[in-house]
Every structure is written in C-alpha cells, then in structure tokens.
Amino acid sequence: MNNSAITYSQIRIMLNLQDSINSIIDMDWREKGHPWFRAIWTECAEMLDHVGWKWWKYTEKNIDQVHLEIIDIWHFALSEMLLEDEMESLCESISSAFEKCTEWNEEYDVENLRAGIEAFAAHTLLNKKFSIELFVKIMIQSGLKPLELFKMYVGKNILNKFRQDNGYKTGEYIKIWEGQEDNVWLSEILEKTSPTNSNYEVEIYDKLMNQYKKITNKSDI
User: Is the whole model's pTM more than 0.85, yes or no?
Assistant: First the structure.
C-alpha cells in the first residue's frame, strides 16, 4: 500500500467506528449540536505544548504525543463530517485530501509545524469548522502518514469501546494488566497486527479481549 494513500474501505471503517462510539456515549449525538470545533482547537493548544514554544524554559519535544493529539482531533473531525455528508461522499473527499499530498516527511521542522498548528487552530476558531486540508498539512509537517493515522485511530477507538463494554463507567474495568496499562498492551497488539487485514478492527478487539480474560480470570471478579 502506498504510504501517501488510504483506501475507501479504511476510511469507511473509521467513519463507522466514530459513529458507533458516539452512539455508545449518546444515542442522540447527531441532534445535540456539540461544538466539535471547540474540542478541535483546544487539542491544538495541547499539541503546541508538545512541540515546545515557551522561550523562558526548556521543553522536551515529543512527536509521539503530537501524533496522539492529531488522532484525538481526528475523532472530533470525523464526528463533524458525519453530520455534513453521506458516507460515499465523505470517503471520496477524505481520500482526495490525502491523495493530493505525495511527499510525507520522515522528520519534522519545528517552526513549520508550529505555524501549521496555529494556522489550523485559527481557521477552526474563525470558521467554527474543521479543515481537512490544513489537518493533512499538519500530518505532513509532523511526519504522520495516512496508514499510521488509520492504525492509531482504530486502535484508540477500539480501546475506548472495549473499556465501555467492560464496565468503564461503572468502575468495574481493570486498567492495569499484569503491571502495564491497557494502552501499552494496545500498542503491542498494533505492532503485531497488519492494518491491511480485512477485519483489522475486529482483530484488535479480539486480541484485547483475549489478553483481558487472562487478567480477569486470575481476579476475583
């Protein structure tokens, strides 16, 4: 698979997963008029902190955390887009946005990335709307390729759903598995699972469940 492209099937998976997790949280989420733009620009501020901008103190630059903030933004962006268009049109427009970008940086330039984050945040605040073009620009500036976006997004979404399915709201869920947080186990699972598999999201969920059963079977729950 070309690193500068993403398939319709993978885009559709992400859109369906976002609709599903939103519905788990609130069945009427489409009618609530949530300010997705506000969630997006506040994530931009957090992303900027991970890039480092404070001249009065040293800040460790953390590109992995930048990528995690991008994934968080993508959750809100997909939610907004789901309210605006039909599935096939969304798949086409998202695919087109990624296809226009053919050069993906292996390393990032701090100043360019800071400027890109601020331009994206400014557009979001001014228009109260997500811009996929400016979002993709940040991906390029930070070295996050579409296939990695897909992997990280699906992983985080599935973990969120897994937590909800296993008592996260009621306090029954066990977050530490054999001395490691569940998100560490997720990272290990993602490393061993190909994102091109046809049932990628199902595989991740099943592997989480298999590992979780080992923990719960040892407990008194």
Answer: yes
